[in-house]
């Protein structure tokens, strides 16, 4: 039983995607130049929103943020608890908490497309916008 619990616990903490692996994922999924952004913008966003953790979760009071891109339950996903939720990405918020980030990527791109950039993410606005972000992709 203890061995099983030891194997199960790391999964509950989420996977922190290594920096260069995340750069490769973003490049492969067309984030460079997407809506006028760079992979470095997205890397900075992910660092300050979730710390590269696929199971990041933040309670904002009336709504919650889910996953590596911290996608909000009021507008983008359905957690079954947020009053007046829009669910614009047509996805269960719980699906944003697994290690497969393909659906997270599609929703994040939809958010950026509708906002014409990254302004919906406070982590990006407060820590990344207008800064030299080359260190986020250097060496990858």
From TrEMBL:
Pfam families: Lys (PF00062)
Catalytic activity: Hydrolysis of (1->4)-beta-linkages between N-acetylmuramic acid and N-acetyl-D-glucosamine residues in a peptidoglycan and between N-acetyl-D-glucosamine residues in chitodextrins
Chief location: secreted
Hydrolase recorded as keyword: yes
CDD domains per the UniProt record, alphabetical: LYZ_C
Occurrences of domain Glycosyl hydrolases family 22 (GH22) (ranges): 89-107
One annotated Gene Ontology cellular component of this protein: extracellular region
Signal peptide: none
A Gene Ontology biological process term: defense response to Gram-positive bacterium
Keywords for this protein: Antimicrobial, Bacteriolytic enzyme, Disulfide bond, Glycosidase, Hydrolase, Secreted
Subcellular localization, as worded in the UniProt entry: Secreted
GO function terms (MF aspect): lysozyme activity
InterPro entries: Glyco_hydro_22, Glyco_hydro_22_CS, Glyco_hydro_22_lys, Lysozyme-like_dom_sf
Gene3D superfamilies linked: 1.10.530.10
Superkingdom, taxonomy of origin: Eukaryota
Keyword Transmembrane: no
EC number(s) recorded for this UniProt protein: 3.2.1.17
Similarity comment: Belongs to the glycosyl hydrolase 22 family.
Protein name (database record): lysozyme
UniProt source species: Machaerirhynchus nigripectus
């Amino acid at each position: 039983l203890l061995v099983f619990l030891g194997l199960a616990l790391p999964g509950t903490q989420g996977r922190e995607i290594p920096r260069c692996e995340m750069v490769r994922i973003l490049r492969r999924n067309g984030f460079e130049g997407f809506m006028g952004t760079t992979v470095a913008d997205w890397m900075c966003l992910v660092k300050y929103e979730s710390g590269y953790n696929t199971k990041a979760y933040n309670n904002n009071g009336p709504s919650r943020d889910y996953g590596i891109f911290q996608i909000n339950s009021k507008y983008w996903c359905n957690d079954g608890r947020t009053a007046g939720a829009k669910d614009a990405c047509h996805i269960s918020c719980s699906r944003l908490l697994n290690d497969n980030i393909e659906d997270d990527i599609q929703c994040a791109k939809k958010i950026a497309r509708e906002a014409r950039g990254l302004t919906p993410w406070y982590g990006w606005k407060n820590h990344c916008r207008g800064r030299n972000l080359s260190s986020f992709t250097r060496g990858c």
